[in-house]
Amino acid sequence: MSTTLDVRSLPLVPKNPLPIRQLVSLVRRLDTGQEVIRDAGGPITRIQFGPKWVYPPIVAVMSPNGMRDVLGRSDASSERCIYHDEVRNMAGDSLWVLPNDLWRPRKRALQPVFTKHNVRNFGGHMSGAAQAFVDRWPDGGDVDLDVECRRVAMQSLGRSVLGVDLNERGDTIARCMHVASSYTTDRALRPARAPRWLPTPARRKTRKAVAEMKVITDEMVRACRTDPTRDAPLVRALMDARDPETGLPIDDDDISNDLLIFMLAGHDTTSTALTYALWVLGHHPDAQARVAAEAAAIGDRELTPEDVPQLGYTVQVLHEALRLCPPAAGVARMATRDIAVDGYRVEAGTLVAVGLYGLHHDPQLWPNPMEFDPERFSPENVKARNRWQFLPFLGGGRPCIGEHFARLETTLALATIVRAMEIRSTDDFFECEVPLTTVAKGPIRAHLRPRN
Ligand code: HEM
């Protein structure tokens, strides 16, 4: 790692040449805005909205080396930022929002729960939820893939994370999550924010939404404490988790916060990944037929985590979907000291915007970046590629803890649905918005026909 002296000798990141007014609106468009910013200023570029005391300088990073330099560290120089602070203030201490020093013991306790092997103990519910989708449409018909996939993701997460069928409470959680996400992003992007103690209508609404979700997660933790036979393996695993260095458990309030954040971090993301993958297959009948054949070769029975090694092409399709439409279009960090990023100096106090969408769509890295081509993820192509070039779950010191779980869930769901249904997408575009993570902006229409 570079010394401070090295960093000081590096040039500052070049300033983006676009006019401020245009940059203000591009920064709010958290996915496609990145491409315009990158094309004008390069894959590492600086944006300054005025004096530093009004809003910190932003450095947008979209190059593989830049990713390595920012994400390869979880020390105090690449810290949580205003986004995380806002979520922490609203929803309490959870794995996602804790600053690095407080995060480390929590991560040590939680990591063993989310290993590739262990997620099979609580993550196999997606097949059942996907099968329920298939069963709702025995004769096929016109569907909104977004609505269906949200239902699938909520049903599966409810069972996996909380150990219950959420049923109508799923809608409450989805609504509350949307309120909380939109409020947080909006506040984080404002140059001037009302003080936190001021009870603005938006703040009151968000507090109420978070409280509604907390009722559900608190109730689950209490139920598991009082009933030792309750079937909720993830909640139990959190209760049993210990920091391997100190032996300390996680207290119940923090377990409840973590459950809430798993729902928040896991719902829209898996739902968008699945919706996009189905929509794109609905435009590519050949790739779709290959996924269907791969799943059919396993048989008619419910797919299980043990089947995933037989679903190699399905996984390639999912990777290509995650490249084209990364559910987390970008993440942010605060540089707490000067750091070297891709040959430039990023000064302490800079908001580092890590642009996954810009990285995944860079024509220098991905020929014909808008084209759907699952062969990009064939084992040989993956081996030949820079590992910092494809990061839907991030990488380095503080990646997504739910990665194995999400991969398992989406693979089983995609294979289950495509094995049973032929999909023809009727919308040419997948319109998105980015309240925090990327979600469909409106209905994603498709026609389903049962395969016999
Ligand atoms: C396709 C699905 C998913 C994608 C693309 C995804 C992506 C990401 C990304 C990019 C981050 C980094 C955020 C940041 O640093 O600010 C993250 C963090 C996180 N994700 Fe996921 N995620 C997915 C599913 C899930 C699921 C299913 C869960 C839980 C069951 C989950 C739980 C978390 C948590 C707790 C963090 C914070 C980790 C930490 O700071 O140590 N994610 N995810």
Q: Termini separation (Å)? A: 58 Å
The number of domains is 1
| Class by alpha and beta content | alpha+beta
What name goes with the CATH superfamily?
Cytochrome P450
- Gross geometry: globular
- Which range does the strand content fall in? 5-15%
Listing every helix as H and every strand as E from the N terminus to the C terminus, the arrangement reads: HHHEEHEHHHEHHHHHHHEEEEHHHEEEE
The average pLDDT is 89
CATH class: Mainly Alpha
Query: What is the helix fraction of residues, given as a range?
Result: 40-55%
In CATH, the topology is named Cytochrome p450
- Supply Rg: 22 Å
Largest sheet strand order: 1-2-8-5-3
Number of helices: 17
Task: Give the names of the bound compounds.
Answer: protoporphyrin IX containing FE
CATH architecture: Orthogonal Bundle
Number of strands: 12
Pfam families: p450 (PF00067)
Protein name: Cytochrome P450
GO molecular function, one term: oxidoreductase activity, acting on paired donors, with incorporation or reduction of molecular oxygen
Cofactor: heme
Can you give me a brief rundown of this structure?
The protein is α+β, with helices and mostly antiparallel strands and 452 residues long. The protein has helices at residues 4-9, 20-28, 33-41, 64-71, 82-91, 100-110, 125-136, 145-162, 169-189, 201-226, 233-240, 252-281, 285-296, 312-324, 356-360, 379-384, 403-420; strands at residues 44-47, 58-61, 78-79, 141-144, 330-335, 339-341, 344-346, 351-355, 421-425, 432-433, 439-440, 445-450. It has one domain: Orthogonal Bundle (Cytochrome p450).
